[in-house]
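Action item from last week, closing it out:
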Amino acid sequence: MASSPTFSCPTCSQVLSLPAGFQGSQVQCPKCQTNIQVPASQPATAPMAAPTMVQQPIVQQTAPINSPTLDAIGKISIDMDSTRGSATETRQLFQAITKEVGKIFVGQDELVVGSLVALFSGGHVLIESVPGLGKTLFVRTLGHILGCDFGRIQFTADLMPSDITGAPIFNMKTQEFTFYPGPVFTQLLLADEINRSPAKTHAALLEIMQERRVTVDGETYPMEAPFLVMATQNPIESEGTYNLPEAQLDRFMFKLMVDYPTEEQEANILKMHSEQVDINSRLSNDLDTIASPEQIVAVTKETGNVLVEPALVDYINKVVRLTRTWPQLYLGASPRAGLALMQGARTLAAFQGRKYAIPDDVVQLALPTLRHRVLLAPELEVEGQSVDSILRDMIRTIEVPRV
């Protein structure tokens, strides 16, 4: 394996060390923020700095590049045939839910598993995908299966906060104001094309997503548990859209990237949904309600008891903290990202019948947890590099614990 290049910043003389894979690329000095071209090879006459002048290396100990755990970075999946876990009630419930979902909704395993992990972890999901991939159908299907109320809000440029939360209306008969709840008062909410509304409408969701309540005219109205917001945004069209503020992005537990189905999956979609059968009757007749809101709340509490070893806690902490010093990232993740990653790992372990989390659970959820909480350095955005590839390179430099 090639040695790690060690070189000095031409502006501040800071000695830097990076993995061999960064040779020939451009990075940013963490001390003076100068853009530096990493040498293609280690110069033979490169001056060696005194040990006292070398700061803590930018990169942690490098994990094996062919580690089975690291191969799962960003690939959310559940091994139904795994014998590592036991047949717990949570695992049986998860298998029953996914089986019922498969009767109507084809493929998109990352969307299905990621949304269920967020639901049973008390989080929310931001989905980036082109139109027509079945997001509304998935929410309606999930609502029927879980016995939960579901709703949909189409975000537009003229949507007002009161259109979401509801507002008090004067009753001529009683001569009093009566509060009429808005469409947000549901349990599974699809916020379609959320980036088409201005900031004041986005702000209306902040308290709802974090505090699970709505405050109007000094009165507080609690949301019924469970409560899951699945917001979507179109990555193609940018005209007439507003970027979500960082504060709101941080409220989403995961950002899931939904791509086109495979050829086989799309063929199954054509066969299943081309017979002009009313979808409402199919949802009512073909699906069984196998859970209840009370059961979801109970399982959510149980997932909090899944064991996370101190070594795994330290690993999660290193992953999140390294995003703040990684030279190719302009903005790192907040402590809320670590909390989301740990709780998500607990829920994923419970879905597989385990009472303890393992590194596989963490690395599978690392990209969905971090990709919307970090910002690339400006020069990398110009070059068209992706957040996911940078995060994969970063995570591969952290030693995976044995638990």
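Closing note: The chain has two domains: 6-53, 70-395.
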